[in-house]
Every structure is written in C-alpha cells, then in structure tokens.
Amino acid sequence: MTKRNLFQAAVYLLCAVLAIWSDQSGSEFAGGWLTGRLLNLHLAGWVLLVAATFLTMRLTRLAASLAITGLALCAPFELYFVAPGAFRSVFPGEYSVPLYSYFVWDARAAATLLAFVAVASMSLGILFTKKPREDLG
To answer: What is the torsional sign of CA 59, 62, 67, 70?
Structure first.
C-alpha cells in the first residue's frame, strides 16, 4: 500500500461523503418524474464511489474507472441545483416550483462539482499513465 493509494482512497471517500451529504431521498425530490431519476442515478454513483474507495488498495485502475463512472452518475443531481433552467430547457414539462433564474448560486453544489471534476481528472490520469515495468509481474 503506497501513499498514492491512500491519497486516492481518501479523495474517493471524500467524494462519497460529499455525494451523500447532498442526498435528498426523504424529500419531495424522490417523487418527481425528473428528480426521482436523478436521485436514483445519484445513489448508484454513491455506491460506486464507496466501492472504489475499498478497491483502491488492490485494483487501482479498476477503482479509478469505477470512481469516474460514479462521479458521472452523481454530477447531474448536483448540476440540477446549480443550473435548474438548463434542465427545464432540456426536459420540458410541468414543474411545481416556478423558475426564477437559469443559474442559482449554491455553494455546496458548486464545491461538490469542483471536487468531482478534480477527482475525475486525477482518476483519468491514473487510467492513462503507463505502469512501471516492475509492476507488471
């Protein structure tokens, strides 16, 4: 177990904590035709992030690919809080809350998205680096 693996596991765990922190499962979001699906994607992404945290110690590249998939599944839910107007443009329909602005400043969602982008770029770097010769056993 290297320092790099520990750091990788720590940032995956951080992203999992950020994702579960924004969970809205017990709210009216769960019943919406769009937000209910976003919540299901979010839950699946959170599970993949937790799995990536534990797999990092043995299967680094598999963990990186699981984390990228998990982040991609969690990101639309966070984007919904930052850009609700964009979602309404792409998915028209009846909404129970009127639209006041296309973009809303939500510091928690913006910070979570920023962390997701940073961790996804780190994971892509792990996937696309060549393994050293001694690791090929």
So the answer is: negative
